[in-house]
Write a structure and sequence with these properties.
The structure holds two protein chains of two kinds. By secondary structure, chain A is mostly helical. Chain A is 74% helix and 0% strand. Classes of the chains: A mainly alpha, B mainly alpha.
């Protein structure tokens, strides 16, 4: 039994929207980071689906690059978060509000 | 037989033409060497060493870029590494620009880093990585490579924003920049995925060929992909309504990093933006031009008007940079050869202007990156005539004063807009420029106006006492009075910092041969480069205009 690509694309779109909504709604920085990961992986799923549908390998190769980039981003992101929240009790974005105009 | 089948299925590895990516390789290799050398010395080397190494690396990559320029001129534009890299007049212009940014940044940052007493190898290593990312973005002919370049450009900038560990605002800026940057990258990537699905390729030339062959009307996936790509770019160049991170990040970051970020992020993002939309989606121009029309309108007007009411110089300059982003987009909105040439010219001259402006703002403050209120510049011309005059020139050039590069840049984009029949937009952009002149002139007036009679003249010890008493007072009197006395406290602390600044300055600059000017030779050289580009090409614009216009002719 094969599942039509449209289902995968729909799933990816839903995951991406969840990521966007989560990032805009949630206030915990770690959860926001997870939402970014969700968005990146939704894009990956789209790449793989189209790669299969188009019978073209480059979409799947793109996924490898994205995985590496996502890992690098998380490393830097967690580093920044640790550097800030060493002085604070919890990782809540609303607690840091020095900059506003 | 099976072996034969396997052999035919072997991956065809592309031939790697190393000259095509030589500038990037020089920057990355130089960065690794710099980090290695700095790690060998436990106590760290003087900032001048890192700066001079960075200048050397920058000059090497500049030479490599000019060699590529010569190749393109002598032969023609060419593809390299499996059509992923495009070396044409356009990418060569940006390779040259980015190399110049590295060199100027290295000169300008020394005085600031010495004042802050940080070793500074990180500031240079991160800048080099970031620049190589911008170069990849400029020469990429493939959406995936553009994405990777974007990340190589952005990730070091997140770290640079948070380099000042002593100020909480710096960490906050880094986090805001990181979260929103990662968010926009993810949107951008999803846009790439949808574009790939709709056109069957991530290669810009193939996308363009596909769109030229097939007439696609109202394809939702393609339009959604293009829209998401647009949003990703709008975030990176800080166009309204995706600009809200800019003021916070510009204010919180170490000032010298802010200047670098403003120059390199705009250069890299605009390079990729222009290439993607002019090389891949020209046939869809009727779809993206109206969006750009609205965005240019909002960006120029909001940037100029909100900057008027800012109290912090860095925040004001952040809104001014938003205004400039609108002007650069104006050239792209025209979607013509002339418009692109004008945009390229604008990006080129703006990079030097913004580097010079932020370098002086950085040095005008006090240790700990303090005293960046507009009022703190009161009477700056008396204290530092050379720096104040240079800053005034940069600001006037940003405002578009004649005989500077800024004037011609604005003139060209507006002319391009008029030729593309966007009359209303051209008029609105000019109105925003007129409004923007207001806050640039306000800053100039502050610097050259009379010295204020406020806290600055009192002695530090008196101020410290008053500051202490205010602090005690606020801690006892609860929340309501806290909001009232906080500005007063800030002013008092500002006064203290200003008084200590005077003694520090003599420490930092007094020993230099250029002590009379109040600047170190490093800063003077960097400023001379920026001023040179701004004034010389203001009076004699032809070479730079030709360079920018030529880049569009050689557009592959």
């Amino acid at each position: 039994m094969s599942i039509a690509p449209a289902w995968y694309l729909t799933l990816a779109a839903i995951l991406f929207s969840l990521g966007v909504i989560g990032l805009l709604v949630r206030r915990n920085v770690l959860v926001m980071l997870m939402c970014v990961e969700l968005m990146l992986n939704a894009a990956n799923l789209t790449f793989v689906t189209y790669s299969r549908a188009l019978n073209d390998i480059s979409g799947q190769i793109a996924v490898f690059f994205v995985l590496v980039v996502a890992a690098a981003e998380v490393v830097v992101g967690l580093g920044i978060i640790v550097a800030i929240f060493r002085r604070k009790a919890g990782a809540t974005a609303d607690d840091i509000h020095l900059l506003k105009g | 037989m099976e072996l034969g089948a396997l052999a035919t299925h072997m991956l065809q590895l592309p031939h790697v033409n190393y000259t095509a990516i030589m500038p990037e390789l020089i920057l990355l290799g130089g960065m690794l060497l710099l980090l290695l050398v700095s790690a060998l010395f436990k106590k760290g080397l003087p900032t001048e060493f890192y700066a001079s190494s960075t200048v050397a690396i920058g000059i090497a990559s500049l030479i490599a870029s000019l060699v590529l320029y010569h190749d393109v001129e002598a032969h023609s534009a060419f593809n390299a590494i499996g059509h992923a890299i495009d070396i044409d007049g356009f990418s060569v212009l940006f390779l040259t620009l980015v190399s110049c940014i590295v060199i100027v940044y290295a000169f300008l940052s020394v005085a600031y880093l010495q004042r802050e007493q940080t070793g500074g190898v990180e500031y240079y290593a991160l800048a080099l990585i970031s620049c190589s990312g911008a170069m990849f973005m400029a020469s990429a002919n493939d959406l995936i490579l553009i994405f990777i370049g974007l990340e190589i450009l952005s990730i070091p900038l997140y770290v640079m924003a948070g380099m000042d560990q002593l100020r909480e605002a710096s960490g906050e800026a880094a986090m805001k920049y990181f979260i929103l940057g990662a968010f926009s990258s993810a949107i951008f990537l999803y846009g790439i995925a949808l574009t790939y699905g709709a056109t069957g390729s991530v290669n810009l030339a193939e996308i363009s060929a596909f769109l030229a062959k097939n007439v696609i009307l109202g394809n939702g996936v393609l339009l959604a992909g293009m829209g998401l790509l647009l949003i990703g770019f709008f975030f990176k160049i800080a166009a309204v309504p995706f600009h809200f991170w800019t003021p916070d990040v510009y204010q919180g970051s170490p000032t010298i990093a802010t200047g670098f970020m403003a120059a390199i992020a705009k250069a890299g993002a605009f390079a990729a933006f222009i290439r993607v939309f002019m090389a891949s989606f020209p046939s869809l121009a009727s779809d993206w031009q109206p969006i750009l029309w609205v965005v240019v309108l909002l960006t120029t007007l909001l940037g100029a008007t909100v900057a008027l009411v800012q109290k912090d110089i860095k925040r004001m300059l952040a809104y001014s940079s938003i205004n400039h982003a609108g002007f650069i987009l104006l050239g792209l909105q025209a979607a013509s050869q002339k418009g692109i040439g004008a945009s390229l010219y604008y990006v080129f001259v703006y990079s030097f202007l913004v580097l010079g402006t932020f370098a002086i703002v950085a040095i005008s403050g006090a240790k700990g990156d303090a005293l960046h209120d507009i009022d703190d510049l009161q009477g700056y011309a008396k204290r530092h005539p050379f720096l104040a005059t240079s800053l005034a020139i940069f600001l006037l050039a940003q405002a578009g004063a004649p005989f500077t590069t800024g004037f011609l840049a604005k003139l060209q984009v507006v002319t391009a807009a008029v030729e593309a029949h966007s009359y209303a937009l051209a008029v609105i952009a000019m109105i925003s420029a007129a409004i923007a002149t207001g806050f640039y002139l306000r800053l100039v007036y502050k610097m050259f106006g009379a010295e204020s009679s406020e806290a600055a003249f009192e002695t530090p010890s008196q101020l410290q006492q008053t500051a202490d008493s205010v602090e005690v007072g606020t801690s006892f009197s609860g929340i309501e009075s806290d909001t009232g006395s906080a500005p007063a406290l800030a002013t008092l602390q500002g006064g203290v910092a200003l008084a200590t600044l005077e003694s520090e300055e003599s420490e930092v600059y007094g020993l230099s041969p250029l002590g009379k000017l109040g600047v170190s030779p490093w800063l003077a050289t960097g400023l001379a480069l920026c001023l040179g580009v701004t004034i010389v090409f203001g009076f004699w614009p032809q070479p730079l205009v030709d360079f920018a216009n030529h880049a569009t002719l050689l557009f592959n």
